[in-house]
Amino acid sequence: MTKISPEIEESMLKESILAVSADVSFASDHFPKYKLGPENQILEEPKGDNNGPSLKEVVERETTQLSEQHKRLSVRDLASKFDKNLAAAAKLADEAKLREVASLEGHVLLKKLRDALESLRGRMAGRNKEDVEKAISMVEALAVKLTQKEGELIQEKFEVKKLANFLKQASEDAKKLVNQEKSFACAEIESARAVVQRFGEALEEQEKNSEISQKTQEVEELIEEVQVARRIKLMHQPSKVMGMEHELRALRTQIREKSIFSVKLQKELALNKKAEENKSRVYILHGSETLGSCLRLQPCSDNAPVLSKSSIQWYRMSSDGNQQEIISGANKIMYAPEPLDVGRILLVDILSNGQKVTVTTSVPIGSAAGLGGYVETLLRKSSSEFNVVISQINGQDHPSHSTHAFNVGKMRIKLCRGWITKSREIYSTSMLLCGVRGDGNAAAKSLFWQPRKGLSYVLTCESERERNAAIMVARKHALDCSVMLGGADDQIPKTQRETLGLSKQGTKGMS
């Protein structure tokens, strides 16, 4: 057996150590202190210095503090905090990369150290060999420990990356909130500037108005001073003032006399003009041109044809004044205007011996005083009742002059006497209602009612007001039921139609 001297062993160790240390740089100049525990577990000796909590605990604590302060921080502070945390996360990621590099260098170092110990173990014997084997087992344990540390480092890296993504998203959201709040603040600032500008304009306008009012007040004060000065001057000249007063009285008297004389002249001119017109006219309309009266044709000269031997037809001018609407049945010398004629000009054509004469009203037909308010009062009720007397039934005179009730409702019209109902009909296209267009003193009080085809009445009301109100109320209720209540569609003979020059189109506008 060959005995190795201490010098040879020391030289061999130096060669092996130099071979290892040539390629690897150690972090410190001494080997770390470890102990083998039960089942060959490496127990690291406690270090004298305390570096504080681990990186994971610091990140968790910071995250908790951020979540707790989220409600208390403003949007700008939150954004800046997220930016700081994002920078810290990037720094942690860089440190993790450095740790990966250090871990890789540690694996290389342990592998080279184990290879060197393996080469020494073949050369050593006895107790030195046992020390080398013990060192090899410690290196293997350190490799296991380093692998565990790498796993923990990978987990921490994953969590740090997740946290960095979360902080990045939160930072972007915070920036969006900051931009939104900034836009809102800019809009509020602009609105505030506009309000301030409006207030400034209002103040300037108020100052201008105050200056104008002040100038006006100064002018009024000057006028008052001038008037006072004039009054004082006139008081010192009493004779001149008295003379001016007498002149004013004389002028007023002259003006009054001239106005009276002018009125007399106007009356005489009107009488002369009317006399000349009556001389040129053949017929005139006698009666008030208002609702509730009767208009009667009267001859103005001895040469006028006899009205009883002439053909007569009444018309009303359309609203635009461009068309004449025939009034069916109005072919007598007398006509009582009805509510449909209000505001329109009435015409009457007299045809005799081939000559046609037209007479018109001087003004449009006016409404009766107080009729509109009376009709509005009746329309507020569900039905209106009028006292009437039946004058004719189906064109035949009715001998009885008993009073009947003419009830105009929103859906129907009823004629009854006590409990006996003469007629009751709902509004329909076959129903007709208008004023009577015949002769007689009661024409202005009478109305024509056709409940249905084959049945008609001539009813005389108590007054012209009742007759016109009944027609207006009935037409309003019928219009609410989509029905137009018109006048009697009297059939004009064909020969008379041709003689009067009527067209079929003209008869469509009958009341």
**Number of DSSP helical runs:** 8
CATH superfamily (homologous) name of one domain: ATP synthase delta/epsilon subunit, C-terminal domain
What is the 3D form? elongated
Name the CATH architecture of one domain.
Answer: Up-down Bundle
Largest sheet: 8 strands, antiparallel
pLDDT < 50 runs, ≥5 residues = 1-31, 489-511
Distance between the termini: 154 Å
Give the strand tally. Answer: 17
Helical percent range?
A: 40-55%
| CATH third-level topology of one domain | Single alpha-helices involved in coiled-coils or other helix-helix interfaces
Residue fraction in strands: 15-25%
| Average of pLDDT | 75
Our Rg estimate from Cα atoms comes to 61 Å
Structural class: alpha+beta
- What would CATH call the class of one domain? Mainly Alpha
**Element order, helices and strands?**
HEEHHHHEEEEEEEHEEEEEEEEHH
Structure description:
- The protein is an alpha+beta fold and 511 residues long.
- Among the domains are: 85-206, Up-down Bundle (Single alpha-helices involved in coiled-coils or other helix-helix interfaces); 281-360, Immunoglobulin-like, CATH 2.60.40; 371-481, PH-domain like (Roll), CATH 2.30.29.140.
- 52% of the residues lie in helices and 18% in strands.
- Strands 10, 11, 12, 13, 14, 15, 16 and 17 form an 8-stranded antiparallel beta sheet that branches. A 4-stranded antiparallel beta sheet has the order 6-5-8-9, with helices on one face.
